[in-house]
Amino acid sequence: MTTVTQMKCACESCLCIVDTDKAVEKDGQYYCSEACAKGHPDGSGCGHKGCTCHA
């Protein structure tokens, strides 16, 4: 059995790959940041280089 340790951030518009042990987990989904996990309530992105997610 292989344990998945990296996956794409669950935020649809986000390009980030996250380590599952460092990710923000919400409702069984893994996110790269609190902004993504909360659905970008104030329109801010995750702030990671090269990623333009915000909604």
Polypeptide structure, described:
The chain has 55 residues and is mostly beta strands. It has one domain: Roll (Ribosomal Protein L24e, Chain: T), CATH 2.30.170.10. It contains 1 helix and 4 strands, in the order ββββα. The strands form 2 sheets. The chain has a two-stranded antiparallel ribbon with strand order 1-2. A two-stranded antiparallel sheet has the order 3-4. β1 and β2 (17-19) form a beta hairpin. The radius of gyration is 11 Å and the shape is globular. 25% of the residues are buried.
Using brief descriptors, characterize the structure shown.
22% strand; 7% helix; 55 residues; 4 strands; mainly beta
Pick out the low-confidence regions: none
Task: Determine Rg (CA atoms, Å).
Answer: 11 Å
The number of helical elements comes to: 1
Strand order of the largest sheet: 1-2
Order of helices and strands: EEEEH
- Label the structural class: mainly beta
CATH class: Mainly Beta
What is the chains' assembly state?
A: single chain
Ends distance: 35 Å
List the helices and strands and how they pair.
Layout: E1 6-8, E2 17-19, E3 24-26, E4 29-31, H1 34-37
Antiparallel strand pairs: 1-2, 3-4
